[in-house]
Amino acid sequence: MIKIKRIFTYVFLSIASLISIFPFLWMLVSMTNSSVDVTKGRLLPGTHFIENLKELFATVDLIPAFVNSTIIAFVTTFLTLLIASLAGYGFEMHRSRGKDFVFNLLLLSLMIPFAAIMIPLYRFFGNITSVFPAIGIDTLSAAILPTVTTAFFIFFFRQNTKMFPKELIEAGRIDGLSELGIFFRIYVPTMKTTYAAAAIIAFMNSWNNYLWPLVILQSPEKKTIPLLISNLGAGYAPDYGVIMTAIVIATLPTAIVFFFMQKHFVAGMMGSVKG
Amino acid sequence: MGHLLKKNTIGWFFILISVLAIGLFYFYPMIQALLLSFQSGMGANLQYVGLDNYVRLWNDPSFMAALGNTCIYLIVQVPIMIMLALVFSVLLNDTTLKFKGLFRTAIFLPCVTSLVAYSVIFKYLFGVDGLVNYFLVKLGWMTEAINWLADPLWAKVIIILAITWRWTGYNMIFYLSALQNVDRTIYEAARIDGASNLQQFFHITVPMLKPIILFTSITSTIGTLQIFDEVMNITNGGPGNATLSISQYIYFLSFKYTPDFGYAATVSYVIVVLIVVLSIIQFRVAGDRND
User: Fold this and answer.
1) How many domains does chain A have?
2) Among A20, A102, A119, whose Cβ lies nearest the Cβ of B110?
3) Which residues pair with B48 in a beta bridge?
4) CATH number of the domain where residue A137 is located
5) Residue A217 to residue A231: CA distance in whole angstroms
6) Option in B97, B233, B268 nearest A115 (CB)
7) A-chain residues within 8 Å CB-CB of B15?
8) Do B279 and A111 touch (CB under 8 A)?
9) Which phi-psi region, left, alpha or beta, contains residue B41 (left: φ > 0; alpha: ψ -120 to 50)?
10) Which of A116, A179, B96, B207 could share a disulfide with B268, CB 3.0–4.6 Å?
11) Residue A256: closest C-alpha in chain B
12) Stretch B75-102: mean pLDDT, rounded?
């Protein structure tokens, strides 16, 4: 009886794992096959990879999109970490009733759906375009700015700061460091793993973001990878091999980040719920 | 006193950028959206029209379709996903199970893909000449290919399948980590008392994980209510309006149809109200069981 149950568990988990992995395997295999072979259900690697790659570079501007996505993701990650960790530190280390109230208010913003603020944000960036063209509509700055401060990361840093040894701060004060000096010289190096976890999640979110870039970035040379992928699939006679190649290239950065930093990624998710 | 005052001021300095940014990029637009919802007009030419937009909601078949679809996604998808994630985590929490790491990584893997990338893959998997049709016909389970995404019911099913594929492993990780903190002797005691696996699941595991289940239910609810990337890239809302979501309808109202920012803002407030109401209900339900 126990044995049957055990076998059932293995079969169930194997099927679930297979379903989870299958789209990945399919896209990897399809990247090396011609469009016809993909529709014929070929599940073995082929010899079309170089042709698909050439065709992809001939039809779309992959490199600029890749560069745009990279710039946006790196700047967003850097600013998110800086702003959120300053705030998390400030809320936890300098507690007062007023700040607790402000903190709860900031948490409320997690309930605000992006769709609800999308149009006012678009109009806001539209209005400032004539005054500050550098951060107006159709600029990478506009794609970055509204995404760098989320209550999630402030909450995350505050939760993780609870474990931070406060004696280190006193030691820093005695050594004559300024409050900002304490933050950058003592807090930041000590919290490396927290920063790593937050960086992975921020990078993935930014790299994969779709709706806001779709709204704010309009000219073709400003497109990001998700916008490009989305457009590739919109044609009437799609070349499956080529599209799969593009999707693999688009997924590669986050997949690499995930594989090398799996532990930090999971730690980051958990950091958001632990009490 | 002077020192205390200084410390407090510096504390405010640390949180200043966040407060300003969240005020500017979340709360100010929320108020703007509320004001917009009482205005109507084409593009930038807006006039106050009172409650007209809210009245228009009731007579707008596209809105009703979007609202209905989004609610279907929510009602069907969130419970299935939460249940499935719980089952996976309980199975994977068994210390005697082999290949645990492998299963866990495999089931978790989908959440590294971008929503757009996996949506496009799902679109082709379930296309008329897609892989699913090819194998179902080849295996003789179907006589001819089904145009899954052109069928109002199947298209919804595919969307639900897609979200479940993407997010189940994500939720599983939360339960798995929480289960590792549960004292195993409780299960041993239950087993000695003759509790079946199913009884252990509903009387020990579920109550223990309640806070995490509440957390994942609320985040999943908020996420599903805002669903956009999948419908946009798998079905583009079709066939007809059969898979149109509220977020997508807002996008269409603002950037695809003749732009009516006022009415789009009105529609967006429906999501706000839904999120607030459902979150309160979820807190209440979880709170009641607590007593």
Assistant:
1) 1
2) A20
3) B39
4) 1.10.3720.10
5) 14
6) B268
7) 86-87, 90-91, 99, 102
8) yes
9) left
10) A116
11) B112
12) 92
Q: What are phi and psi of B47, to 5 degrees?
A: -130, 150
Contact A115 B177 (CB under 8 A): no
Residue A93 lies in a domain: yes
* ipTM (interface pTM): 0.89
Place of tokens 């993935």: A204
Which residues from B are below 8 Å from A214, CB to CB?
251
Q: What does the pLDDT look like over B253-263, one tens digit per residue? A: 999 888 889 99
Q: Which two tokens stand for residue A60?
A: 């779309």
Would A193 be classed as within a structural domain?
yes
A1 falls within a domain: no
Residues forming beta bridges with residue B40, ordered by sequence position:
B47
Q: Which residues of A fall within a CB distance of 8 Å from B112?
A: 204, 251, 254-255, 257-258
pLDDT value at residue B1: 41
For residue A43, the 8-state DSSP code is -
- The pLDDT tens digits for B208-243 are 888 889 889 989 999 999 999 999 999 999 899 999
Nearest residue in A to B261, CA atom: A119
Question: Using an 8 Å Cβ cutoff, are B38 and B263 in contact?
Answer: no
Q: Is residue A191 part of a domain?
A: yes
> A-contacting residues of B 16-35, CB under 8 Å?
17-19, 21-22, 25-30, 32-33
Q: Express each pLDDT in A9-43 by its tens digit.
A: 999 999 999 999 999 999 999 999 888 888 777 88
3-class DSSP assignment, residue A165: coil
Query: Is A97 an 8 Å CB contact of chain B?
Result: no
Assign 3-class secondary structure to chain B: CHHHHHHHHHHHHHHHHHHHHHHHHHHHHHHHHHHHCCEECCCCCCEECCCHHHHHHHCCHHHHHHHHHHHHHHHHHHHHHHHHHHHHHHHHCCCCCCCHHHHHHHHHHHHHCCHHHHHHHHHHHCCCCCHHHHHHHHCCCCCCCCCHHHCHHHHHHHHHHHHHHHHHHHHHHHHHHHHCCCCHHHHHHHHHCCCCHHHHHHHHHHHHCHHHHHHHHHHHHHHHHCCCHHHHHHHCCCCCCCCCCHHHHHHHHHHCCCCCHHHHHHHHHHHHHHHHHHHHHHHHHHHHHHC
pTM (2 decimals)?
0.90
User: CA-to-CA distance for A152 and A108, rounded, in angstroms?
Assistant: 10
CA distances from A135 to B88, B214, B291 (A): 46, 39, 52
Which of B9, B20, B24, B25 to mutate: most A Cβ within 10 Å?
B25
Instruction: Name which of B6, B149, B167, B136 is nearest B74 in CA terms.
Output: B167
